[in-house]
Amino acid sequence: MRFTLKQQTVFEITIVLGVMLLVKDVSDRLALIGAGSIAMWCGIIVATLFMRKHNITWRQRGLALPENKRAWLKAFGYALVIIVASLVFMGGILPLITNALGLTIPESSTDRFEFFLGNVWLFLAYLVVVIWLGAALGEELLMRGFLLNSLLTLFGDNKAGIAAAITVHALIFGLLHISQGIPGIIGTGVVAVILGSVYLYTKRQLFPLILAHGLINSISLTAYFVTDGKLT
């Protein structure tokens, strides 16, 4: 029995996300540092195998450095747009929404960061390995490079299909941050919409997204570190 392209796409998305969730659960049970990043990269490995079957490379999905000075400037410009839009929503609009609805972020959501407080070298190592390689690079590869493109194959590369793909991928990305409560799901979901929109607008360039993602997370985590966990 041969699968249609859409059936195969659904199967591949299910397997990749399933592997990622399974590894995340096991890593959490073992109390491993960077459990989310470990799970993300396991998902990337499986996604890479599926992509090879279709003769698709990560470079075709946008994993490449800018080729010239103008391209570098544009990439930094796109990253700046993402950072500003994300910080405006997370720092200005989201608090208004959560306060109006009486929602709060669980204090336990930052417990996993307490181990590096007071240790600058441990903090820097976490910043490089987990934040930049795990979250910034890993999440952009899997969420935008694989998932969003797969959903576009499923829904169609037209206006309605693009809207559906961005919405569904943002919902999935938000739910992956369920440990941050409903505010975290809303916040990361909206950021995913911003990242996905810029990704498609730039004709599938991942570098600006990786740069912006890494800087946003670095800013928030540095604030947490320098205030000894008081500012999250």
From TrEMBL:
The chain crosses the membrane at residues 30-50, 71-96, 116-138, 184-202, 209-227. It comes from the Bacteria. It comes from Fluctibacter halophilus. One of its GO terms (molecular function) is metallopeptidase activity. The lineage of its organism: Bacteria, Pseudomonadati, Pseudomonadota, Gammaproteobacteria, Alteromonadales. Keywords: Hydrolase, Membrane, Metalloprotease, Protease, Transmembrane, Transmembrane helix. Pfam families: Rce1-like (PF02517). This is CPBP family intramembrane metalloprotease. Residues 123-218 form the CAAX prenyl protease 2/Lysostaphin resistance protein A-like domain.
